[in-house]
Amino acid sequence: MSVLVVGYGMAGARLAAELHARDRYLPVTAIGAEPHRAYNRILLSGVLAGKLAEPEVTLAEPAGRGVALRLGVTVTAIDRAARTLSTSDGDRIPYEHLVLATGSHAVLPPIDGLAEPLPDRVAVFRTLDDCRRILATADKSASALVLGGGLLGLEAARGLALRGLRVDVVHAVGHLMERQLDPAASAVLVGTLAGLGVTVHLGAATTRVSCDSGGVTAALADGRQLAADLAVVACGTRPETALARTAGLTVERGIVVDDRLRTSDPAIFAIGDCAQHAGVVGGLVAPAWEQARVVADVVTGTASRYRPPAPVTRLKATGIDLAALGASTDHDGELLTFADPSRGTYAKLLVRDNRLAGAIMLGDNPAVGTVIQLFDRGTPVPEDRRALLLGRTGAAAPAADSPALMPDAATVCQCNAVTKRALLAAWRGGARSAPEVVAATRATTGCGSCADAVHGLVEWLSNQEDPA
Ligand SMILES: Cc1cc2nc3c(=O)[nH]c(=O)nc-3n(C[C@H](O)[C@H](O)[C@H](O)COP(=O)(O)OP(=O)(O)OC[C@H]3O[C@@H](n4cnc5c(N)ncnc54)[C@H](O)[C@@H]3O)c2cc1C
Q: What is the CATH number of the domain that holds 440?
């Protein structure tokens, strides 16, 4: 048996590692269009902000026999009848099990002046090469325009502001991160960003982007002109489905897959941002990695079905704490909100059938860990909802971030679905330091926002007389 993986991004690299962990002699070939070894795309925001160096965003890869990598090579066609692939370097490769992990690509909106190849001063933000390109220009710049006020645009804006650039964010919609936030949360966030050197222009449609040796200018529909030294286009992503579509697989917004991640051709699987499961396309790493685990099980003969993890989105920008969970923009249900714009705080809880259906937690709120756990586990919301909303700890809202009080079933690392129970098991299995616990469980290796919780737990365990 052999497995061929197309795409060596976060899903493809994880799949190769999962397969290798199950059978180190299983022949796996991964073909990746990017020339780089596996890296953590999520952490590119940290590289852009100057918080992380490139070597710090590499992903652990399977060592030794089994996994063959062909990097800088694009798969150009699939011949399903012959079960072969064609590659950009002229090769034809047979496959038995084929897994498409082709991810997604940055969308260029239909704006005058925005077409491939982009001018030097204009870049999208998806790959390590995009990041290098932005930084090469940012180093010589005093100001930047970011087109797009979604998660990625704001992370880029905050990163560039941290490097000392004056940043304008231009967003066509009336409020920021409209897929995760409501207008009230956006208003608080706009104020927080202003304090961090980022000016936001909402409801501002860009009609033209022009570039010369002096800089970039965005012309807005209302007649304004915004000028800067560089522009980052962060106007969304689209699943990379061209290969699958040309091969005749069923493609809607993404490549349609079933609970075993099989496409309309049972010999071909799809995982990660390119896949569409139960009508939903990806865009986050937690489902991509869970899908990689399921496919590794299925092709190695273990019964497994994909169940999508609950969506948790966190903005990774220094000075801004923001988590959006589930149906965060809905209103139908028991709705509780609290806003304190002068302190940059906003909280929203949406309760249905006594369970959290969605939440927005912006700013410093000690209850965020509890809220994420309630949402994640679908446990009943405490009677006194105000404690959660206002971040007051107490009987109603146990200090869930405290390792001792965290329930064993609590998910500590959302990206890798690692519970406190799994961390305790690693400890009992002999892992005695944070790096050892991380190596045993993979906790913290996604977006890294659980690092404090994992370190706190290890410290707490170290201080116990009998941690088992
Ligand atoms: C800056 C940034 C920050 C992010 N932050 C978060 C976050 O905080 N939390 C979160 O959950 N998600 C975040 N994401 C999204 C997350 O990175 C993606 O969900 C994840 O990378 C999906 O993995 P993937 O393997 O499906 O796609 P990708 O990581 O994009 O990998 C796909 C790979 O396939 C290759 N490929 C495509 N077509 C071919 C072909 N024909 N032949 C060969 N290779 C091909 C591509 O070149 C690419 O290397 C962020 C993304 C970015 C860009």
A: 1.10.10.1100
Pocket (CB within 6 angstroms of ligand 1):
6-12, 31-34, 41-42, 44-45, 74-75, 101-104, 125-126, 152, 240, 243, 272-274, 282-286, 288, 316, 447
* Whole-number Å distance between alpha carbons of 461 and 406: 13
Ligand 1 mean position, distance from CA 331 (Å) = 31
User: In this structure, how many other beta carbons lie within 10 angstroms of the beta carbon of residue 193?
Assistant: 24
Evaluate whether 412 touches 423 at the Cβ level (below 8 Å): yes
Do 422 and 353 fall into the same domain? Answer: no
Domain span at residue 179?
122-235
Do 375 and 451 fall into the same domain? Answer: no
Is residue 66 a contact partner of residue 27, using CB atoms and an 8 Å limit? yes
Is 359 a domain residue?
A: yes
* Ligand 1 centroid to residue 152 C-alpha, Å: 13
pTM above 0.85, yes or no: yes
User: Which of 400, 425, 451 is a domain's end point?
Assistant: 400
Same domain for 200 and 294: no
Give the tens place of pLDDT for each residue, 293-344.
Answer: 999 999 999 999 999 998 889 898 888 999 999 999 999 999 999 999 999 9
The answer to whether position 308 is within a domain reads no
User: How does DSSP assign 100-111, residue by residue?
Assistant: E---EEE---S-
d(CA 339, CA 9): 39
pLDDT in tens, 355-407: 999 999 999 888 888 898 899 888 899 888 888 888 765 534 444 557 777 88
Helix (H) or strand (E) holding 437: helix 434-441
Q: Answer yes or no: do 386 and 407 share one domain.
A: no
Residues 386 and 443 placed together within one structural domain of the fold: no
